[in-house]
Amino acid sequence: MPHEQTAQALESEELVPPAEPHAAQESKKVETQADLSAEIKAMGDRYAEALKNGRGPETMPRLDYSPYRSSILRHPTKSLHHADPETIELYSPAFGHQDVHALESDLTIQHNGEPQGERIIVAGRVLDGDGRPVAGQLVEIWQANASGRYIHKRDQHPAPLDPNFTGVGRCITGDDGSYSFTTIKPGAYPWKNHLNAWRPAHIHFSMFGSEFTQRLVTQMYFPGDQLFPLDPIYQSIVDQDARDRLVAQYDHELTSPEWALGYKWDIILTGSKRTWTENEAYGDAGDEE
Amino acid sequence: MSKLAPTPGQTVGPFYGYALPFNKDNELLAPGSPGSIRLQGTVYDGAGNAIPDAILEIWQPDSEGKIVERTGSLVRDGYTFTGWGRGSVGNSGVYTFTTVNPGPTAPGAAAFISVAVFARGLMNRLFTRVYLPENEEALANDPLLSSLDPERRKTLIARRDADGGLTWDIRLQGGDETVFLDFQQDGSLETSVNADHSARVNQA
Ligand SMILES: [Fe+2]
Fold it and tell me: Does A101 touch chain B (CB under 8 A)?
């Protein structure tokens, strides 16, 4: 259960701050938000120009996005190698109710008391590129508390921890691909990318599809956040339409009277499930469901 | 091909450590059980430094080459091989898994494990493969490996250790950068890693 795991994870975690990116160590001058915003704007302008010249829209973050300083030494410099998925890649690990307890989707009941903050419901569907539901699959989330503090020991932000909030949830999608979490609206938090760098409030999401190639880890944001233009992680997706796909919508239908505000967010995984024919072709390879 | 635009990925960030790991996450098989081997390696950045905040997932057939689709990875019962595991690197950048040698999924096919890589500072997950080193003929005939030049091909083949285990390092950047795969066939521009290369500030 979430409790024990958290305790175990925390014990094995050492009390050391994360290594700063080397590039940041080498640079002498303090980088301000204005410096970063200028870089973000320049990259956005070049992308807008490319779009005008007929280039197709980008749908994913840039792996090479230097305003996020930690990415500088951590992105491949060679093009990703195009490959046709084969055998194991056309299947996905399976999860079920043995793996996840129904109560793990409610992050507000993991302790003896109620967590502080604004109670919310985040719900939607996991779909493939053809709009078909991804049923019976694992969704994992993690987030900061209402004050913008993670329970992770490496989080040094001097905001209060909440003894009644861990910030970890899981669920298995329904037949229609639906998921739903009850949680607390996370706070924005500072990080040390540059001077006065703040992350917009977000919930980390991890999803599996019906093929391993659809594996997705991302972050969900809240509508209207004033930090969007300033944040190198959000801005690493240079296309506005693509960025919008990470922003949940307030949904009054989902809001629960006298209880919690509702946010709706659907997730579209890349591509679509293997076709029946391909499935048959790999049947010989030993797939016995 | 696909009608709906995909949801973009984002970095796993620095704080996954209390959320994604779980008990026995990297033990697809109990250590020491018959047929178990250790798969291990180090994840490096472009300066050759080990990365202390990366997390990997492996997904593989069993030793007979059978793709199992069994639940129970998150709460392992000690018997069921599910084929999937998750392993965080330690402070020295080293990951380990206890697993089995994957079998070839068809006669004569090269046996490999599918790998997804996540890290702080890595904007989106990366896919790659690690192949068993032994069957040279199968490796030579493998569609992916034979499409790579020999220097790059090496990055996908594990080394067999004296104790029967496998060692395989991951290099996110640099001359001996690991081959990472793009599976998208839906026209998305996920390959545009160098789209802005000329404009990159000179910090790397
Ligand atoms: Fe975060």
Answer: no
A202 catalytic residue (yes or no) = yes
CA of A115 to the centre of ligand 1 (A): 19
Query: Taking the model in full, what pTM does it have?
Result: 0.89
Yes or no, beta carbons of A23 and B203 under 8 Å apart:
yes
Mean pLDDT of B156-171: 98
What is the Cα–Cα distance from B131 to A75, expressed in whole angstroms?
23
Cα A287–B3–B7 angle (5° rounding)?
A: 80
What pLDDT does residue B134 have? 96
Interface pTM (ipTM) of the complex? 0.92
| Matching residue, tokens 């599910």 | B82
Q: How far, in Å, CA of A125 to CA of A266, rounded? A: 5
pLDDT at B123: 97
For chain A, what is the HEC assignment?
Answer: CHHHHHHHHHHHCCCCCCCCCHHHHHCCCCCCHHHHHHHHHHHHHHHHHHHHCCCCCCCCCCCCCCCCHHHCCCCCCCCCEECCCCHHHHCCCCCCCCCCCHHHHECCCCCCCCCCCCEEEEEEEEECCCCCECCCCEEEEEECCCCCCCCCCCCCCCCCCCCCCCCEEEEECCCCCEEEEEEECCCCEEECCCCCEEECCEEEEEECCCCHHHCEEEEEECCCCCCHHHCHHHHCCCCHHHHHCCECEECCCCCECCCEEEEECCEECCCCCCCHHHHHHCHHHCCCC
Catalytic residue among A119, A204, A215, A243: A204
Q: Quote the distance between the C-alpha of residue B47 and its chain's center.
A: 20
Q: Is A204 a catalytic residue?
A: yes
